[in-house]
Amino acid sequence: MTKEVFCLKDLKHLIYFENLLQDAQNELVDKAKAEGRYALGYNCYYVPEVLLNLPGCFSSRLRAPRCTSTDIAGYYMTNRTCPYARSILERAIEGGFNYLDALFGAESCATMDRMEQHFFLINPIQNPRFFVTQIDPPMKGDTTNLDYYKVQLRVKLLEPLRDRLGVDISDEAIRKAVEQHNRLCRVITAIGDFRKLPNPPITGYEFHVIMLVSQVCPHDLILPYLEETLEELKTREPEPKFPFRARVVLAGSEIDDPDFTRLIESCGAMVVADRYCFGSFPGREEIEIYGSESAFDAVCRHYLHWNQCARFMDGRKIDQRTSEVQRLVRDFAADGIIYENMKFCEFWSYEKVLKSSIFINDLHIPTCTIEKEYALGAVGQLRTRFQAFIESLEIKQLQGGK
């Protein structure tokens, strides 16, 4: 077995970050709630994170860490559905999301839709203020769909925030939220850019942990720790020699378990870019407001443009997903791609098959495809697949890329 090469204790706040990821209702969430702020949950990039951080609110992207059984959720949803969605419902029934004041959902797939419906059908959240809304997200990226997206976000997100919680949804408030969001994005992007170096002072696992805490903790409370980590990385000495055998882009659907990244890296490949749900591509691009454009219009335009969901079926979006992963391979000097889909996920399973054919046969980029459960259980088969793929990348390097 390949020896692990991580220096996890070297980063001052890494253990603190790891502890924050153990529960959805972590220490910083409790602190924000004690200040009287509203906790707004969401599951998907289709729901703009920045709009959930208006004055008096904070966003909380939902995870179900350490969820190994979905027996109760399986009573309401068949076990032949996405294990992420079932795990979120299971955790809600267990009481793990009682801190939430609202859930802003997106009907991005039938399973996600059904899971979010159960948040009001069986009322698992023990909070009298709690409510659920769902947007109908677009399936194309053109102007008509942008107009529809704006209507959905205004009617099902902004107006409920104003009418039910008294939140300021003015242009000035949204602009301020955008400024704060961009500050966080700049820090995360700067940290992530270290992975472009030939011998980075950060591992993919460490970055995965950092990216996740930026999504599940109130931004203003986690930002000082992230800024301090960025300064620490500027002077952090990497290993004398690059400790991995290869560099890979990890692409695909929902991945919110850093141990999955740790597994890949323990097999000898550093994860240098994260193009998956909960990753930074997309997720941490700065929002630009053009000229006389309203802040709300800029947010809608930004999220529709950068969204890489496999639900988009128009040709431009399909091509964009290909070119984005290809760009990451180039910019981060990756040797190959690991393409993942969550078990029973129709959209990403189709996308995985299509993209692996394109990357291998047309673009000649080595690609490994895998299917995974939400909880990282038995890893023997995955480890074998990763080790074989990494060995093939290493052989290709020795043969001069042939």
Description:
With about 400 residues, this protein is α/β, with parallel strands linked by helices. The chain folds into 2 domains: about 20-170, 3-Layer(aba) Sandwich (Rossmann fold), CATH 3.40.50; about 175-400, Rossmann fold (3-Layer(aba) Sandwich), CATH 3.40.50. Helices cover about 50% and strands about 15% of the residues. It contains 14 helices and 8 strands. The protein has helices spanning about 15-20, 25-35, 70-75, 85-95, 110-120, 145-165, 170-195, 205-215, 220-235, 260-265, 295-305, 315-330, 345-360, 380-400, and strands at about 40, 55-60, 100-105, 130-135, 245-255, 270-275, 335-340, 365-370. The strands form 2 sheets. The protein has a 4-stranded parallel sheet, with helices on both faces. A 4-stranded parallel sheet has the order 6-5-7-8, sandwiched between helices. Helix 8 runs antiparallel to helix 9. The longest helix has 23 residues, at about 145-165. The model is unreliable at about 1-10 (pLDDT under 50).
